[in-house]
Design a protein that fits this description.
Elements lengths: L2 H7 L17 H5 L5 H4 L7 H4 L1 H6 L19 H7 L4 E6 L4 E7 L14 E8 L1 E7 L7 E6 L3 E4 L4 E6 L5 E8 L8 E2 L2 H14 L1
Antiparallel strand pairs: 1-2, 1-9, 2-8, 3-6, 3-8, 4-5, 4-7
Length: about 200
Amino acid sequence: MHAFSQSFVNPQQPYYPWNTWPPAAPYPQYYGYPYSFYSTGSRAAYPSHALNYAHMRSGLRSETEIKDYGKKPLVLDIKRAAIQNDTYRTAIWTGKYFQVTLMSIPVGDDIGLEVHPGTDQFIRIEEGQGLVEMGDAKDKLDFRANAGEGYAIMIPAGKWHNVTNTGNIPLKLYVIYAPPEHPFGTVHRTKAEAMASEHASQSMK
């Protein structure tokens, strides 16, 4: 068997995917995690904390300022940014064809029942858990599903939808709207602030 393959599946010969990992401190002992890629032989079982270790050592995981970077090129740790965000909604990238926002939903609260007639929506949960509801009318939400960390939610344009935080920690997520749904630089610190802003926007039309 090839030396790399032996290292990949043999717990006695762990494969270190970066040079900065301390050979004297294998992953399970170093982080105290109950499972590892060594014991399963699968890179897919590798916790993201381990894969991020090299980034921390190289400085690539320094915090990105949470603001709208507009149409400028941007590379960031989206999971970390989503967890770091404490506002109900903050736009971090508003382009010509799509927009990315971060959201934080308090325990027991929800995004709010809404519909976007001309906008498809993608939501990914980075921390917490929630109940997803969708339907063709606000009083007919016949699609229901539970979602947690790592789950993605696709919402077709014209579907009424809501996501409720059913966990015991804030629900951290990011949202992609195509095309953009909110003005450049949008920051809504609370749900009430967001609703007031949207009501004012509707009144001006």
